[in-house]
Structure formats: C-alpha cells, structure tokens
Amino acid sequence: MPTAITPTERIRNVLLVGHGGTGKTTLAEALIALGGTDNSRGSLLDSEPEERERGSSLSLGVGWVRWRDHHINVLDAPGGDDAIGDAYPALAAADVALFVVNAAAGVQPQHDRLWAACDELNLPRIVVLNQMDQQQANYQAAVDGLRERCGNALAPVHMPLGVGAELSGVIDLLQFVAVEKTAQGRAERDVPEERRAQADRNREFLVEAIVEHDDEMLLAYLEGETPSSAELGKVFAAGIASGGFFPVLCTSATAGIGVKLLADFLVAEAPSPRSSGEQTAALVVKTQSDPYVGRINILRLLGGTLHADDVLRVQRTGDKVRLHQLFRLQGGDNDPVTAAAAGDIVAVAKLDDVRTNDVIDVDGSTPMPQVASPPEPYYRLALHPASSGDEDKMSSALARMAEEDPALRIVRDTETNQLVASVYGPTHMAVVQSRLQRKFGVSVEAGPVRIAYRETVRTSAEGIGKHVKQSGGHGQYGIAHVRVEPAERGAGFTFHDNIVGGVVPRQFIGSVERGIVDAMASGVLAGYPVVDVDVTLFDGKHHSVDSSDMAFQVAGSLAFRAAANNAGLVLLEPIDEVRVDVPDALMGDVMGDLSSRRGRIQGSGRGGPTTAVVVAHVPRAELLRYAADLRSLTSGAGGLEVRPSHYEQVPEHIAERIIAEAADAA
User: CB-based burial of residue 490 (10 Å sphere; 0-12 exposed, 13-18 middle, 19+ buried)?
Assistant: First the structure.
C-alpha cells in the first residue's frame, strides 16, 4: 500500500491517446506491469463489463507504476469514435500526452483531432509507434507521414531493430546504439551496418529538431559542426516540455520491446508537474459511479499537499466538502494513501455535487486551469423508461450518467415534450443504456426524435369566430372577425386592434388575442405551432350581460382557425447549418451525400493542408443519425458541427406524409 508522498519533481503524469486499435491500452498496462502489477486476470484498465464485452476502452483508465524512484501516473484515454469524449477533460490531468500510433496504419483521424486539442493547451507530446512486431509495420512511412504533419519538430529518437516477427529491439538514435532484448534483460551493440544509412538519416531529423532550441548550437550546426550526444541531451528535456519538438519512440507492447526504454525516457526527459503554489487545490478530471463505492472523483492536485480528511471548498458552488479516504486507482482496484503532493493524481469517494472540471481549494482563489471540451455529440435519440418502475429513477440516473460521461447531453425538449439524448453514435447509446441498468437499475429505451415542425399561412384571408350560448341562465356571447396575413419568415406573431365604435369592448380585446395565441400554439393543420402571421381584429359583437373573457377567448380561437383554413396552411421544417471538415479526397462524396439529404451546399473552402470544409443547409429531419453516417462514409475522418439556422416550407409530398402521421397519432 503506497503511503509515502512522492515529491512533485519525481512525478510524471502521462496520458495515452490515439485511435482505437493502436494497442494503447496494452501499452499502458505493459508500463504498469513494470512495477510488478499482476495483469494475469485479464485487462487491468478496461475493467468495466461493457469494455470487456466489446474488447475496447470506453472510458478513462487510471493506473500507476513506480519506476527508477519516480511515480508515473498512467492514464489511458479511449480512442474509439463513440467513446472519445473522455479523452478531452483528461488532457488537463497530464503533463505529457503519449500519442500511440499503429506502425502499420500510421496517423488516423483521432490523432489529428487530439493533436489539435493538445496544441490549444500547449501540452507536450511524445509519439510512440507501437505494434512494431506486425509484419505490415512500416516505420519509415509512419515517420515521414508524421513529418508531413509536424514538419521539422518531429524528432525520431528510436528506430526498430528488425521488422515484424524479426523485431528484437530498437536503435537509440540519440546515443546511436542498438539496444536488444535478451534473456538476461537487454544488451547494447553497434548499429548494424545494413541499418546505418537509414539511422543516419533519421538522426539528422533528430539533430535538426533539437538544435532549433539552442542558438549557439544551431549556429555551430549550420557551420558544419555536429553536436555530441551529451550536448544534444542538455536541451532535450527543455525542448519537449516547451512543445518545441515531439520525440518519436518505438515499442511492441505485446512483445515487451521498447517498454522499459519508454519508461526510462519518461523519467529522464518528460516534464514533471507544475505547482500552482503552497495552497492546497485540486482539479476534478473525471467523475465516475461505482455500484459499491458510489461516486468517485479523480483529482489532479494543482498545488499544496492533500491529506485524507482535508476540508476544501468547491469553487462552483461555494460548498465545503470533506475528503475522507484518499486512494489511487489501479484499474478497478483501490490503493489507499494518506497524502499526496502537488501534481499527483488521486481519487476520493462520496463527494456530493462535485463534478468533472470543478476546482476545489481552500478559499476559492486558485485560477481555473485551461481544459479541453470534447466534440459536441450530434446523434440524437428520444429516451423513455422501459417500465413504470423505471420512470421515477430515470431522471436522477441520467443526471449521474451525464456527470460521468462528458460527451452525453440530456435535455427536455419543451416543444415535443421528449427527453432527448445527444451521443456520438449507436455504440455510445448502447453503452449508456447498459451502464444505466448495471449501475442504477434503470432500464431506458431509445427511439426517434420528433421534429419540431411549424405551420404558417399561405395568403391573406378572413374568418369569423362565434361563441354564443343563451339557452337559459348566464350565457356566453362573443363574436370576433379577424384577418390573417403571412409575415416574413422568423417574424413571429403580431396582433393588431382595428376595432371601431366599441363593437368589442376594450376589456375583451386582450381576450381575443389570448384565444388566438392558444389556437396558434395547438396548431391547425397538423397540431404544430403556427408562426409568422399578422392577425387583425377588425369587427365583432358583444352582449351587455353574457359577454365574458372566456367567451371572447373562444371566439378569438375559432376566428383564427377559420381564417387560417381560408388562407391555406403550409408546413415548415427546421433547417440546420452543417459544417463538415473532410479529407480532400472525400469532399465530393460528402457533398453528394448532403445533397441526397435535401441539403443545399452554401460554400466550401480549405480546412487544413489536406482537408476541405463544406457548409450546407440541411433539414433537421435528415440529420438525426447523420453523425454516424458521416463517420462511416469517411472512416472517421470527417469532423462535424451543426447549429440551428431557419425554417423553410416542407416539400408537398413530404408534408402530406407528416400530416397523415399526425392525424393517425391524434
């Protein structure tokens, strides 16, 4: 059980990120295993049933290892398209991001997106070419592809020794020696002659990246003097910490090659955490629910020293919380600790109303660190309880799930009265449903989202509303004459009072307007709200005894319905503005797909060196599952943004179907 406090300068916080299928979790667990952790029970970091069932990471995995008298916190971010949301808030916990790349596949879409997020945070990065033991692995193609993206800042530090099944170690380009795995551990020898030309070329890349960060060394290099390994090493760590260059290392996590060298590199060259000062403060980088422990918050200590039973204040709410038992997470296991120094990562259970990205400190003065927000989810589904027994628990369970999953959005659509979940895709939704059942005993079903259509009038027309009941006792009497006219799209509703001579008394003018508003809200054509109309009350009749507020409300409603029917009604649908970032080669496919969804291309342009941006207006009804379809069309390379734009008339053949469906549901 770890009890000693590790000084900040001997802490390393490493977040492994990358695309699914790069062996990222295997590499993370191989690092952790260096400290003697037993992984024989199966996946250590993918500890949830949903992860084991699918064979991939679905949420942030947390572990640690003691190595060379240092403490390395190993964070494993999910890389799948449907689970990438957890990676973004975790960036704030790390002092270096390890981009794990499949040496056969090279750079993939998730790498580019997360690289951009690291750019925004100025987070140091190390690239690890993993799975070097695969027969299809191509080291040089991967390095050259990375240099196309990063330029001279890409610095190869390792090269593989052997290819595929012949992989036996790595070539250390800084020291220019071959390091082989042996039965006794490791052995160093000269770089093989057949690899020397390639090694020389890649070492030049490394030297060029390093000398850029030392003016004196750069001047000497330009004059033909090659710096020694010792001279290069002096500026190596500083260049990594500043984000000036990005080292490239090689591993095969499954074969155990390069893993110890990676751990050595992290200890020797990766930056230690920065402290915000002596005051105790922490950032919540992950909130999760455990069926036995309850709510667990993972904390990155920003400053000071944290002790069990410390009382701190939540900046967002001002509430005080007591941190009872502190512990380190080792996958699904908990290792208690008594204290932690600035920069360390620990967990605490059972903190009420404490969520991801909260800062907790002594007096609320700690600056909020810069955090990265995950991409917005645009795959929308309506949720409802599977049974009456689930109804009471559903809202609170979904709220807890949203705290745990930073990419899950839950909103109540006041127009359709549906509870709508926005997620990344079908797999994301299936995982949410599974976790709701397992952790909270709530079964939720997902179905299509109803579209918030509108109605409006085609032309001008008049209508009369009569509400007259005088068959004994106190009666009802109200007659209203109204005229409706179409207004500009988006203008809403305007009411005009043109009554002359008091035919409708002043106190009932507002009653007529309220009746019209009620009729507009409930719709005339298909039950959808009526919008963008001017309505004029120009005539009517009243009775000195039987007229009332209610009578004229009913008369106003009837008059509006009559006038609207006379004017002819059309159905309007919401149109969204869609922005798609896509590789150049797929631009035509994306534009064709958007057009097939009744979209109108508004423009296109450059997105990046190899990407284009397409902007289109597309009916919302065609976009409910577009996020998943775009991912399939572009193999995950398409980025998406959607925002509401305006309403337009629904094509007649589609409107007929919508009206018929509304009539059947009534």
Answer: exposed
Query: For position 392, what pLDDT does the model report?
Result: 84
What are the structure tokens assigned to 154, written together? Answer: 């890409």
- Burial of 438 from C-beta contacts in 10 A (0-12 / 13-18 / 19+): middle
Provide the edge-to-edge strand list for the sheet that holds 461-469. 461-469, 476-486, 533-541, 493-497
Q: Is the pTM of this model over 0.85?
A: yes
pLDDT of residue 2 exceeding 50: no
**How far is the CA of 210 from the CAs of 89, 121, 155, 269, 271, in angstroms?**
30, 22, 8, 13, 16
Sign of CA dihedral 134, 138, 139, 144: negative
194: exposed, middle or buried (C-beta count within 10 Å: 0-12, 13-18, 19+)? exposed
Tokens of 367: 């600056």
Residue 666, pLDDT above cutoff 80 = no
**Predicted local distance difference test score (pLDDT) of residue 614:** 95
Token pair recorded at residue 147: 């240099």
Looking at residue 41, its amino acid is: R
Half-sphere exposure of 254 (CA within 13 A, CB side): 11
Mean pLDDT of the chain: 91
Distance CA 450, CA 524 (A): 18
pLDDT 10s digits, 4-24: 789 999 999 999 998 888 999
Identify the H or E element spanning 463.
strand 461-469
CA distance 564 to 367: 58
The arithmetic mean of pLDDT across residues 280-304, rounded, is: 90
